[in-house]
């Protein structure tokens, strides 16, 4: 299969949905401030392209930086939980509870306490994304073959050597599974953080457009947001391929074995 | 050169609140530079004995002695190799082998040099940069054995290192293992449930009964060395030893778990 043909079915589906949407909007004479059609949206988005793009930059920046904060915090938490039973007992329930916090309600409070800097925004994004990273990495650290650890211990390996040479590399594929989920959350998180107390970014722009019934531009912003999310996901996937080539090897081997050749 | 001795080792596990005696006063001694096999039915506690000798588990009674010193529960004195090759999928074959000397404190560069110099002898030349996934079962096992041999320990504890291989590869590796051992001279304790393998490789065989394991017989293998495979395994002495061992095993019902 050629690389680009992989995306053909989903592209076709998108086109069909777009056509259906356009047809409904035109046939029913729905006013564009209630529900604009794809053509209308594309025209509006093109007209407002510089406004959309200038506001997309800070949103992307917050999503990426917040994701990186979540990645660092998530992995460190996972290692601490893995190494210490006490830390696990102390933190795991709180980590799960943290996911029940209504971040939208928390955002204005954090802005009040921490001021109108990038800090609270990053915290909001990180709070939304760290969870899948931590949970997956903990699972990965625990998935290492116990016999491998015994072998290394018998040769006198230090606990941290085992962590560095066996557990962390073994956890990388799990970490990336979590990171892929997290990075798609990061865009939503960045949007939340801009709903309140912000003067720029797509989140801010969208609240403005909503108030002005600029529905076409609103959809344009949403499409742009989706594109950012897909791009970040692709970036993480690329990083995964570069950082764990052995894993791709392994999957490729599994795949060809299943197909019955090789 | 160091030898290793397990003296009167007993070990009982608790399973669902019940006591499960696994080893009952087992004594095994490998003299310096000797090749000793521990032969017994599966589930007889051979692996438990090896774990205890490696210092990974503590016996309820008995001692492990190296060079006249009590080293019970002490790690890092012997190179231990479990049945599966346990190569790290993210390390290339050369780096996997280098892990042995690396864990013994050698720098990465020196470890790689040492490992590379042994690749031809271990039939791994040309596969230095290959990931383990792409190697055959026999090559993976040779890489794992090389890693163990290069761990700079004089004593090696091998837990059915050839158990997962097909019969032909296994034959090849048995005679190859003897060649390597004769060159590199280590004290080896090998656990196996393959009668032929035990006779062909070892100087002395400790026969374990089924669980709870006791040493039911100790046999000295008085076959000459070096041992060409086809000559040795068809010799009258080999066959009479095999008959003797099969007879000893036959007296007890073999219980597998």
Textual characterization of the structure:
The complex is a heterodimer of chains A (262) and B (257). Chain A is mainly alpha-helical and 262 residues long. Chain A has 11 helices and no strands. Chain A is 82% helix and 0% strand. Chain A is globular. Chain B is α/β, with parallel strands linked by helices and 257 residues long. The longest helix of chain B is centred in the last third of the chain and has 18 residues, at 167-184. The N and C termini of chain B lie far apart (37 Å). Chain B has a 6-stranded mixed β-sheet, sandwiched between helices. In chain B, strands 2-1-4-5 form a 4-stranded antiparallel β-sheet, with helices on one face. Chains A and B meet through helix 7, helix 8 and helix 11 of A and strand 6 and helix 2 of B.
Summarize the structure.
Helix content of chain A is 82%, strand content 0%.
Secondary structure blueprint with pairings:
The complex is a heterodimer of chains A (262) and B (257).
Chain A: H1 8-27, H2 38-47, H3 49-83, H4 85-98, H5 103-114, H6 118-142, H7 146-154, H8 159-195, H9 202-211, H10 215-243, H11 245-259
Helix pairs in contact in A: 2-10, 3-4, 3-6, 3-8, 3-9, 3-10, 5-6, 6-8, 8-9, 8-10, 9-10
Chain B: E1 4-15, E2 18-30, E3 35-39, H1 46-54, E4 61-66, E5 69-70, E6 78-81, H2 93-103, H3 108-118, H4 137-149, E7 155-159, H5 167-184, E8 187-192, H6 195-201, E9 204-208, E10 215-220, H7 229-233, H8 236-250
Parallel strand pairs in B: 3-8, 3-9, 6-7, 7-8
Antiparallel strand pairs in B: 1-2, 1-4, 4-5, 9-10
Helix pairs in contact in B: 2-3, 2-4, 6-8
């Amino acid at each position: 299969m050629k690389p680009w043909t992989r995306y053909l079915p989903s592209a076709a589906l998108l086109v069909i949905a777009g056509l259906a949407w356009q047809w409904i909007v035109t046939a029913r004479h729905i006013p564009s401030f209630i529900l604009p059609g794809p053509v209308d949206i594309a025209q509006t988005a093109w007209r407002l392209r510089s406004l959309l793009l200038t506001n997309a930059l800070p949103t992307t920046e917050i999503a990426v930086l917040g994701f990186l904060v979540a990645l660092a915090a998530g992995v460190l938490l996972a290692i601490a939980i893995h190494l210490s039973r006490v830390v696990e007992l102390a933190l795991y329930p709180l980590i799960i509870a943290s996911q029940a916090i209504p971040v939208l309600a928390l955002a204005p409070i954090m802005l009040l306490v921490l001021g109108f800097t990038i800090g609270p925004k990053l915290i909001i994004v990180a709070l939304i994304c760290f969870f899948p990273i931590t949970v997956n990495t903990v699972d990965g650290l625990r998935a290492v073959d116990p016999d491998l650890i015994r072998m290394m211990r018998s040769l006198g390996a230090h606990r941290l050597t085992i962590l560095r040479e066996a557990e962390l590399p073994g956890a990388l594929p799990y970490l990336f599974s979590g990171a892929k989920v997290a990075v798609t959350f990061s865009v939503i998180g960045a949007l939340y953080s801009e709903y309140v107390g912000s003067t720029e970014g797509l989140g801010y722009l969208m609240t403005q457009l909503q108030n002005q019934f600029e529905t076409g531009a609103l959809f344009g912003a949403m499409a742009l947001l989706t594109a950012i999310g897909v791009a970040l996901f692709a970036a993480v996937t690329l990083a995964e391929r570069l950082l764990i080539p052995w894993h791709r090897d392994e999957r490729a081997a599994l795949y060809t074995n299943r197909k019955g050749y090789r | 050169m160091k030898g290793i001795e397990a003296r009167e080792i007993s070990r009982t596990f608790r399973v669902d609140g019940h006591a499960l005696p696994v080893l009952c006063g087992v004594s095994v001694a490998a003299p310096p530079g000797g090749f000793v096999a521990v032969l017994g039915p599966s589930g007889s506690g051979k692996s438990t004995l090896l774990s205890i000798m490696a210092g990974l588990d503590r016996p309820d009674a008995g001692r492990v002695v190296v060079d006249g010193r009590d080293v019970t529960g002490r790690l890092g004195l012997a190179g231990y190799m479990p049945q599966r090759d346990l190569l790290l999928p993210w390390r290339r074959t050369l780096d996997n082998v280098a892990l042995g000397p690396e864990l013994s404190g050698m720098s990465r560069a020196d470890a790689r040099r040492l490992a590379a110099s042994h690749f031809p002898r271990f039939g791994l030349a040309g596969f230095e940069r290959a990931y383990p996934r792409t190697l055959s079962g026999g090559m993976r096992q040779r890489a794992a054995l090389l890693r163990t041999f290069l761990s700079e320990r004089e004593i090696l504890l091998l837990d059915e290192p050839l158990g997962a291989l097909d019969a032909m590869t296994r034959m090849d590796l048995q005679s190859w293992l003897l060649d390597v051992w004769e060159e590199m001279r280590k004290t080896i304790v090998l656990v196996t449930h393959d009668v032929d393998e035990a006779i062909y490789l070892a100087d002395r065989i400790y026969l374990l009964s089924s669980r709870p394991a006791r040493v039911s017989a100790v046999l000295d293998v008085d076959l000459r060395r070096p041992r060409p495979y086809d000559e040795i395994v068809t010799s009258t002495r080999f066959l009479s030893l095999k008959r003797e061992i099969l007879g000893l095993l036959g007296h007890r019902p073999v219980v597998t778990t």
